[in-house]
Amino acid sequence: MERVPSVSGTANLLDILDRVLDKGLVIAGDVRISLANVELLTIRVRLLVCSVDKAEQIGLNWWKYDPHLSLPAPPIPPVLPERPEGQVRRRRPARGRARTRRR
What we know:
single chain; two-stranded antiparallel ribbon; 17% helix
């Protein structure tokens, strides 16, 4: 059986993603569309890809204070009073009787 030679230094997708999230990746660029020296459209791209831990290390934590992204603490449900032993909740009688149709 022949062995397929492997290329040294290969990395799988998981290794690449782990490195990007750990170190961070910055992409910056500008796209301008002009016609006859009249600027029609400008797109400025500033993209940072990193883990939440890395973002907090470099001072980015805006998601903690954005009311649309962070949820308030859930309300604490009220505590119902306990029933004394022996007290049983009785069922209410049904309202009206079930009617049957006669043909």
